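Tip: read the tokens left to right.
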């Protein structure tokens, strides 16, 4: 059984430069007494994501932020895995948008790649690994997942990333059409966050 270190409410570094992720992390953390500060607010550099898994990249970012900011840090590494594309874009989800992280372009690439396969399989899932790290190098990671299917063309402008083309199993609206407050309770990030809070708070 893992011996988890408890996380004390208060300031915490949100180790991401992605404004959509920062917004979701703040929405999740604030009710629990945390005051998240983004990597931009703390002027933290963005480390190169050299890991081969979501967990490795989340740990890399969390540990770098915790040491640089000298406070506990929470990092998220997440992405879209498409069955017909053998799990791509996966850990390279953001990079499919190019240097500008243009997710309209990334969604086009995903759709084009799926068309090229000739497959009718539209199933996909989002994965999120949240890693909490402390300045002394201690860390814990938690993985969340939500299964669904992809649609085309994109629908909705309330989410970010690949949200406008993803519908959770059992739903009819894309993550881009859902009210953000509802999405925060059912997303892959929410799943990981539930596991994190159960272990660390």
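Filled-in amino acids:
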């Amino acid at each position: 059984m893992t011996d988890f270190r408890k996380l004390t409410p208060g300031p915490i570094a949100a180790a991401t430069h992605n404004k959509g992720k920062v917004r979701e992390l703040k929405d999740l953390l604030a009710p629990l007494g945390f005051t998240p500060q983004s990597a931009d607010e703390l002027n933290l550099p963005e480390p190169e994501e050299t890991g081969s898994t979501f967990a490795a990249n989340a740990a890399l970012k969390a540990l770098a932020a915790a040491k640089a900011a000298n406070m506990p840090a929470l990092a998220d590494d997440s992405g879209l895995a498409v069955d017909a594309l053998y799990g791509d874009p996966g850990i390279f989800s953001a990079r499919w948008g190019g240097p500008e992280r243009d997710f309209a372009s990334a969604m086009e690439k995903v759709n084009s790649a799926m068309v090229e396969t000739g497959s009718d399989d539209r199933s996909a899932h989002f994965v999120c690994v949240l890693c909490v790290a402390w300045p002394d190098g201690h860390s814990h990671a938690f993985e969340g997942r939500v299964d669904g299917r992809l649609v085309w063309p994109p629908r909705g402008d309330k989410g970010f990333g690949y949200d406008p083309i993803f519908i959770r199993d059992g739903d009819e609206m894309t993550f881009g059409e859902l009210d953000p407050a509802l999405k925060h309770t059912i997303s892959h990030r929410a799943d990981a966050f539930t596991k994190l809070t159960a272990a660390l708070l």
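The chain has a mean pLDDT of 95. The longest strand covers residues 139-150.
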